[in-house]
Specification:
The complex is a heterodimer of chains A (190) and B (109). Chain A has 190 residues and is an alpha+beta fold. Chain A has 4 helices and 11 strands; from the N terminus they run E-E-E-H-E-E-E-H-E-E-H-E-E-E-H. Chain A has a single domain, classed as Gyrase A, domain 2, CATH 3.30.1360. In chain B, strand 1 and strand 2 form a beta hairpin. Chain B is globular, with a radius of gyration of 15 Å. Chain B starts with a strand and ends in a 10-residue tail after the last helix. Classes of the chains: A alpha+beta (190), B alpha+beta (109). Bound molecules: zinc ion (ZN). The site of zinc ion (ZN) has 8 residues of chain B, from loops.
């Protein structure tokens, strides 16, 4: 069997304000359907291994989790090796529901940024108020980073995990590197 | 720069996270309609200086559609509301009349 390869082969950079690393591949399943349907929620919770997140949030634990994507969409996150099993399980459980389950693992690229300036790097690229009073905890945000769609959350106060389309992985890496250029500190949140 | 609220996912952001898709509350005229009606549906749009109802989509966010009431002259946004309606709800009309006392709510067209 061929080995899965992430978009940028786990490239990393620590020359700037934050450490940027392309991680993965990570297992990701898009689940669309009626989020008030008990059978669907039960299947999602089993697949994601965490409770259903509230609107605009994500629940994560280790390598797995669930992110709230829209009023009818969840993102199930798991280890890449587990995707096929979770997919099969979800499809079986939701066979009688009006729902869509798709493996999007290979369509995505994931980046981690870590460092005291993580909020600032994001604030330079996305139209989001990154003040600790405004973006905190388990909040999950779908937005744009410069010219491409992206989603992210902050596992802790000084790091963020960013998900984008695989086709724009190089753009995202270059973007983060530029926003984290040494000497470009704004210290807006300091 | 407009600050827009998405009623579907609760996010408030500046307009570049969204995309405007033109006049709201158009009545569709399809097969069986007159040529004038069909032309009006396809091409004729209001172009007001003032209160305007528009369709917007949370392009980079949740991907859902909704409606926005705003002023084309001052760029003031009066509010957003569900896409699943054929006319602005009373609270939006109230918000507009609060700021534009002479605004008369009526049929969209
Ligand atoms: Zn939205």
């Amino acid at each position: 069997m061929s080995d899965p390869v992430s978009a940028l082969k786990n490239i990393s950079d620590d020359t700037g304000l934050v450490t940027i690393s392309e991680i993965g591949p990570i297992g990701m399943i898009t689940l669309r359907g009626d989020l008030s349907d008990k059978a669907l929620v039960k299947a999602a919770v089993a697949a994601g291994g965490v409770n259903l997140p509230e609107q605009g949030h994500c629940n994560t634990q280790g390598t797995q989790g669930i992110a709230w994507m829209s009023p009818d969409e969840l993102l199930i996150i798991c280890a890449y090796a587990d995707v096929q099993d979770r997919l099969a399980d979800l499809r079986e459980k939701l066979a009688g529901s009006h729902a869509l389950v798709v493996n999007v693992s290979d369509a995505r690229a994931v980046f981690d940024i870590k460092g005291d300036h993580a909020r600032e790097v994001i604030a330079k690229l996305a139209p989001v108020d990154m003040h600790p009073d405004q973006f905190s905890g388990t909040m999950f945000r779908r937005t744009r980073f410069a010219q491409v769609p992206a989603a992210y959350w902050m596992p802790d106060g000084t790091s963020a995990r960013i998900v984008c389309f695989r086709s724009v992985a190089q753009y995202m890496f270059d973007l983060l590197k530029t926003a984290a250029m040494p000497g470009s500190e704004v210290r807006h949140y300091a | 720069m407009l600050t827009i609220h998405c009623p579907n996912c609760g996010v408030t952001a500046e307009e570049t996270e969204f995309h405007a898709h033109g006049e709201a509350h158009l009545k569709r005229f399809g097969p069986g309609s007159s040529e004038d009606e069909f032309e009006g549906y396809l091409f004729m749009r209001k172009n007001p200086k003032g209160v305007h109802f528009e369709r917007w989509r949370h392009q980079y966010g949740c991907g859902k559609w909704f409606h926005v009431a705003r002023c084309t002259m001052t760029l003031e946004v009066f509010g957003s509301y569900s896409a699943q309606t054929v006319e602005p709800p009373q609270e939006i009309i109230d918000a507009i009349q609060d700021r534009r006392p002479d605004f008369a709510a009526g049929p969209a067209r």
